[in-house]
User: What shape does this take?
Amino acid sequence: MALQEAKDIIARIVKQRGFKLIGVRLLPTDNKALGASALATEPHVLQMFVENTKKFSDKDFDRCVHFPFSFFGFDSDSQWVSRLRLM
Assistant: This one.
């Protein structure tokens, strides 16, 4: 799955939950010290910025936004990897 497709999925899920997605970015990494085998499996990590449009407490907001996405990521070939199904 391409990076843009992953961003689209994130946007759709955030919208379904009734929040506003402000932005998504690929986190920069410093992989200069990694060897070939580590580079081959280096994950891609996305950071999302979501507006608390429902005015939840910080704790409830974190639960609603963070938890469903904490089990997803990209492998080194930009393939979507799911360890658990989306809540």
